[in-house]
Design goal:
about 70% helix, mainly alpha, single chain, about 170 residues, 5 helices
Amino acid sequence: MKFLLTLSSRLNTLLALIGAAAVVAMMAHICLDVALRNLFRHSMNSAPEIVARYYMVGIAFLPLAWLEQRRDMIQVELLDFAMSDRIRRWSDVTVMLIAALVYLMLARATWPKAFSEMRTGAFVDLVNMQMPVWHSYFLPPLGFSIAVVACLLTALVIARPRLADLDGYHNER
C-alpha cells in the first residue's frame, strides 16, 4: 500500500510540474509573440490557438490529482466546528468519495470524445497551415482519471490516519 501511495504522490507531483511548466511556456510564448509583433511587425499566428488548446487545458486539468492529494481544493466548512473528530473524518471521507465519483463521471464522458477527435485527426485552420489539436483532447480525461485515483487514495488516508505520514498525502486540513 505504501508503494501505491508513494507512486501516486510522485505521479501527481509530476503532473503538477508539467502544469507549472505549461504556465511558464505559455508566458514565454505570449511574450515572444508580443515582442515579435511590436519590434518586427511579425505575428505568430498560432500563438492564440496553442495557448487555448494546449497550455490552458494542461494548466486546468493536469494538476487536479495533486490538488486533491494535498487537499488544497476549495472547502466549505459550515458545520465542521460542531462535529467531533471522528464524524469530521468520516465526513471528509464521504466528500472525497463523492469527488471521486464526479471525476469518474467526467472522465467517462471525456474519454470517448478524445478518441473520437484522435480518429478524425482534429485540427484548427490557421492562416497558412492546419494545426493538429486532437492531442489536447486527452488532457482532461487523463487529469480526471488520475484525480479519481488520488481522491480514493486520499479517502483511504483520511480513514486510516496512520497512512498519513507518507510524503504528499495529508490527513490534516
